Amino acid sequence: MTDNELIKLILQGERDKFRIFVERYQQMIFRTCMGFVHNREDADDLTQDVFIQAYQSLPDFKMESAFSTWLYRIAVNASLNKIRKSRKTNFFQLIGSFLGGSNQEASLVSASDPDNPEAILIKEEHSQWLRDALDSLPENQRTAIVLSKYDDLPQREIARIMNITEGAVEALLQRAKKNLREKLSAGKEKKL
Amino acid sequence: MFLTIKSQLKMNCKLCQENLDAYREGSLPAGIMTQVESHLETCDSCRRVLKIQLLADRVIGVEKDAEPDPFLATRVMAGIENLENAGMEKVTPFPGLLRPAFIGLSIAAAVLFGIFLGNLSRPAYEAGKIPVELALINDASLESVDLLSLE
Asked: What are the CA-CA distances from residue A59 to residues A23, A123, A173, A177 (Å)?
């Protein structure tokens, strides 16, 4: 059964058919959410919110784009909203850790081995700075890189989701990669 | 063309690092691929940048391989059911455009009722009229307070 056929049935009142959509797209949406929040529990909650939001907005879906494209847009917007909210929370956590004298930095330096990246990966906290580099990108660059790296989407599809041209996606990806390269290299000097 | 021009340049750290993404993806033309490889063999700095990028790929790979909650679909359907039940329980007598009008009328009625209640408790001296009994009292026939104090 195609997505559009399913949508018609759901709009006619067959609510249970929406489960098929969830099972069909949950992995894809979960992966996108993971790219933004880097945490399984948060990604699960976010994926759930995305599908509920999609169900509520289904009468507004014009079928002008693919259902998956529309779903990706909801996922990206929900993820960015979640990040904006958690950024405010993190600010207060940062103040708390500053006042409490966090020694995370020291543990990162002492535990790492410059010639063995695998050793760095052993502990979850050691890959945190890589995620920080990704999270520090501007929202549009971050969206483009998540859709490209996590979802392996072609630039044409990313352009549709972000509602920009393919050329703009290409430029965003180039800038994002350059920024990441610089941030990772700077981080390397500091952490390794 | 850009790559062709680049391939004619001598490979340095900047060029090498710019090409590392394509190098990791294996999408570099053979000539540049060889130059990047030979540069990496001799340059510690670029080799370390490559290691960092490979590590970043690995971290992304780990996150990509994560599986969602196996009960996610059940959770979503339960969430939808709860929402719909909540929507059915919440029956509004004034839907859509009538709601702002109803709210406005309610506020106006509350203000008028408040004014009415305020008038009910207004003191007698503000009423404006003097009772008949008080009006008939002749002040001249009343005893002076001074007389009372002399006793």
From this structure: 20, 46, 34, 38
Q: What span, in angstroms and rounded, lies between the C-alpha atoms of B151 and B149?
A: 6
Report which secondary-structure segment, H or E, holds B95: none
> Which of B49, B72, B88 best tests the A interface by mutation, with the highest count of A CBs <10 A?
B72
Secondary structure letter of residue A14 according to DSSP: -
Q: Are A47 and B68 in contact (CB under 8 A)?
A: yes
Domain-by-domain residue ranges, chain A?
1-85
Q: What share of chain B is helix, strand, coil (3-state, %, to 5)?
A: 75, 0, 25
Q: Considering only CB atoms, which chain B residues are within 8 Å of A180?
A: 56
Q: Is A62 in a helix, a strand, or coil?
A: coil
Residues B1 and B25: their CA atoms lie apart, in Å, by 20
CATH number of A1-85: 1.10.1740.10
The interface pTM score, or ipTM, of the predicted complex is 0.74
Q: What is the pLDDT of residues B50-84, one digit of tens each?
A: 888 888 888 888 888 899 999 999 999 999 999 88
Scanning A53-112 for CB atoms below 8 A from B yields 55-56
Provide the whole-model pTM. 0.68
Is residue B59 within 8 Å of A130, Cβ to Cβ?
yes
Instruction: Give the residue carrying structure tokens 């391989």.
Output: B65
Do B85 and A148 contact (CB within 8 A), yes or no?
A: no
Q: How far is CA A33 from the centre of its chain?
A: 4
- Residue A127 in contact with residue B52, Cβ under 8 Å? no
